[in-house]
Amino acid sequence: MSNKKKILFVDDDSNFLDGLRRMLHRQRVQWDMHFMASVDEALNAISKTEYDVIVSDIMMPGKNGFDFLEALGDLQRIHNVPTFLLTGNDEQTLKRRALKLGETALL
Asked: What's the average model confidence in pLDDT over 29-54?
């Protein structure tokens, strides 16, 4: 059984996810990294696997990062899992909304 921590990345941009895979390749010794292209795919993964950290994009087609946070808020078993939202937008209302939904940090 692996002692590695599990991290889940969620982003609809496959190029961004591929970039993360390449940049974080050396961290695979410490982290078991999972990459999902949609909120639904991520929620399905969360139903089967426990994660130590979740990182998601905000702006995605269909269900977005806020929809994801709301769905995560309904899952009692992951209430203590740190969640981070990524965005290129520095609008303060996004940050307030994310924090209200229980997000750990807006990056």
From this structure: 95
